[in-house]
Amino acid sequence: MDSSPPQPATTLFAERQMDAIELLLQDLRSVDPQLEHRASFQCCWRELSQLRSELVSLLLSRRRLVRAAAVSPIVPSARGR
């Protein structure tokens, strides 16, 4: 039986977000021959490739933010009291 303390909801949420981001990155980096063929046929292969690169960059940025938030969660300031 697992004797570790339960994780805070924010940590669990961050882990789930990281899993989702990793899955999307893996999918975006894989080659789908049908999609590539359709993009070539519709003359939008270059745009598809550019959009894929933009999405990868966006997900990498999001991954950095989630990691940073998981390492140093925002704690409310006690100064306002």
Short description:
This protein is mainly α and 81 residues long. 70% of the residues lie in helices and 0% in strands.
Number of domains: 1
- Secondary structure tally: strands: 0
General shape: elongated
From the alpha-carbon coordinates, what is the Rg to the nearest angstrom?
A: 19 Å
List the helices and strands and how they pair.
Elements: H1 9-29, H2 33-41, H3 45-71
Account of the protein in words:
The chain has helices at 9-29, 33-41, 45-71. It is mostly helical and 81 residues long. It has one domain.
List keywords for this structure.
about 80 residues, mainly alpha, 3 helices, elongated
